[in-house]
Design brief:
There is one protein chain. With about 280 residues, this protein is an all-alpha fold. The protein has 2 domains: about 50-195, Serine Threonine Protein Phosphatase 5, Tetratricopeptide repeat, CATH 1.25.40; about 195-278, Serine Threonine Protein Phosphatase 5, Tetratricopeptide repeat (Alpha Horseshoe). About 85% of the residues lie in helices and about 0% in strands. It has helices spanning about 5-20, 25-45, 50-60, 60-75, 80-95, 100-115, 120-135, 140-160, 165-175, 180-195, 200-210, 215-225, 230-245, 250-260, 265-275. Helix 7 packs parallel to helix 9 (about 165-175).
Length: about 280
């Protein structure tokens, strides 16, 4: 037997004895240990807004934080509900400008708690969802998408007939949860109940396009255009669906239709760039 094997066996024996002798065997003690381990595991898989604030303030320089710190001081001494809401909106906006949407969402959430409206909660959801998209940190992404889901659920509770809240909630599940089918079925149910819902049709078309289901995507986009002929987004994505399916001629027709329907210079430049490649 080699020295390495002897050393390995010796280490295993020491480890075993340490586990056997060092871990309490009474049921009450073991239950406490298991509880502690569970709490530690939960803490390791979550992140708090305090941690996000601390990290952001540690990474940004004073000039970047100047406006925020000034607004925070004003907030500390303000009791009026309207003034607090305005200050919270401003702080949220400042964090968003710094691409710290998780923090922007946190302050927007406090605004929504005051306003208690579907619009305010929708802004919270959109801001947190931007944080989910922008962040590369898994804990921050989970924090943001969980918050976005709750925010859109709140928006729906205030305005149950607003389909955009339901579509946004569905997209949170599709793109950010472990249950994407729940989101797809949510949006599909919305489209089936209201075939004239342009947003639901367009969203389902994009999801079909993402998975290479070109015929389904084309059908969804056509339906959206039938109900809203001037919808530039639907025309653009119908063009993409045609191009991806190999029909560049129809793709060009839809892209040129986009140019007729919008004056947005950035969008026009994008469309013209695509046309040059076809």
């Amino acid at each position: 037997m080699s020295k390495f094997q002897i050393a390995t066996i010796g280490f295993a024996v020491i480890l075993f004895l340490g586990l056997y002798l060092g871990v309490p065997t009474k049921p009450r003690d073991r239950a406490q240990i298991n509880k502690t381990r569970a709490l530690q595991a939960e803490e390791a898989s979550t992140i708090t807004v305090d941690q996000l604030l601390k990290a952001a303030k540690g990474q940004l320089d004073k000039s970047q934080l100047a406006s925020i710190l000034q607004l925070e001081k004003q907030l500390e001494t303000t009791q009026n509900s309207k003034e607090r809401s305005d200050l919270l909106k401003s702080i949220s906006s400042e964090w968003n400008k710094l691409n710290r949407f998780a923090l922007g969402g946190f302050y927007a959430e406090q605004v929504a708690d005051i306003a208690q409206s579907d619009t305010a909660w929708s802004i919270v959801g959109t801001t947190y969802y931007s944080g989910f998209q922008q962040s590369t940190d898994s804990l921050t992404r989970k924090y943001c998408v969980d918050k976005a889901i709750k925010a859109f659920e709140n928006a729906i509770s205030f305005s149950p007939d607003n389909s955009s809240h339901k579509v946004n909630l569905g997209l949170c599940y599709v793109n950010g949860s472990g249950n994407p089918m729940k989101g797809i079925l949510m949006i599909r149910d919305l489209a089936d109940k209201n075939p004239k819902d342009v947003l639901a049709s367009t969203t389902l078309g994009k999801l079909s396009l993402r998975t290479g289901q070109y015929e389904k995507a084309i059908g969804r986009f056509k339906n959206a255009i039938q109900n809203d002929p001037t919808n530039v987004d639907a025309h653009y994505w119908l063009a993409q669906a045609y191009i991806e399916s190999g029909d560049k001629t129809k793709g060009k027709i839809q892209l040129n239709k986009c140019l007729q329907l919008t004056n947005d210079k950035v969008f026009v430049n994008r469309v013209q760039s695509i046309l040059k490649t076809l």
